[in-house]
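Example record

The entry below shows one chain as it appears in the dataset: sequence first, then structure tokens.
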Amino acid sequence: MRKTVVLDIVALSSRVVGEHTPFLKSWIEGKKKAIIEPVLPAVTCSAQSVYLTGKYPSEHGIVGNGWYFYDECEIKFWRQSNRLVRSPKIWDHLKAENPEFTCANLFWWYNMYSSVDYAVTPRPLYPADGRKLPDCHSQPMELRDRLQKELGQFPLFSFWGPNTNISATRWIADAAKKVDEWYNPTLNLIYLPHLDYGLQRHGIDFEKIGKDLQEIDQVAEDLITYFEKQGAEVLLLSEYGITNVNQPIHINRILRSAGWIQVKDELGLETLDAGTSQAFAVADHQVAHIHVQNEAIFEQVKSLLRNTPGIEKVLDKNDQVEFGLDHKRSGDLVVVADKNSWFTYYFWMDDAKAPDYASCVDIHRKPGYDPVELFLDPKIKVPLLKVGSKVLKKKLGFRYLMDVIPLDAGLVKGAHGRIPEEDIDKPFIVGKKELISHQKIEAGDVYDLIYHTVKA
């Protein structure tokens, strides 16, 4: 089997490869590139699961970055157990053919408790005093300690949130080289998220994202150079491209105004009670899953959504078949935004009653994806002073609330999730010319390309 590296540079599209990415531009020109027709929804968890199983959400069950767990009547995002993915993975296939095959997975999602040989993934510590501390999880368990001894603590707060920067992506890249040095796996899967964040903040504005592009270009050059020196075959790919948006759709507020959302008063603030709501939305970038728990209002919900500005498609269960999205975890309706719009999870009508987690980086409690977590609240007059005082409380062991995130969805300028009209905004895969024979492939074909690269 051939030593292979799959380098996932999130949000890389043909539109952003150019003057700010000189290494990638040159490297790609010497290879063969194929546009990937993205899966719907074009989001991290769904796209990665298609690439690693060769199946679509209707089979592997990953209908988004999160979904409504019917048995618990709760919306949960960013779960981590690989057992949620209901289809065999590429490493299972390859290991069955050759017991000497090994695989390392560096930060691709659903990376806990899988059958992969070596895994590293973000996993904070949550002491009983309410703090959240940076850390990661690994397989084997001692790999976590070895990596953090060599590279320092995984910089969790640079991985996501308003302090996001290149250091987390650089840590992942350095960890990938260490894992390769120590274990020499046959297949390395490496996730580099840095570009995703600036593009969601600013959209396609090269004056603002040029630095991000230069930084990811440098990390890619370092990794590709390292692995090619080891004789590895490098496949470069992305999961989706990000496009400009200017209209947030507060879809749960629309459903609430119709009388279908149930909220609970908690100390004067509101939380969404999904189990008793007649209809609610699980918002995930430019796609939202609508669960209608009162059949009598189904047609009313459908009609309301079809007439909502910014919504381009309303897919019932029959329509979802066309997109490979017909799974029990999918909503009774799946709505897709138009190219200028995206969906918030906001369900409160008055910001004074927003739940306490709304103004925090709290990806597991929010009943939907929240890109506004990438911003510090511009209303804070001296942000360093406010953040610093909260960090001091944390260091002293006091309970604290890092409520520094704004509630202004209009700050977000880039999004993804729908299938873009232009190929220049779609993901792509790059490899040797003899391995990639088409100019465009389906998302499910990525699995075969990885498989045949390893087997070649």
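Notes for this example: The chain has two domains: 4-244+420-455, 247-412. The mean pLDDT is 95.
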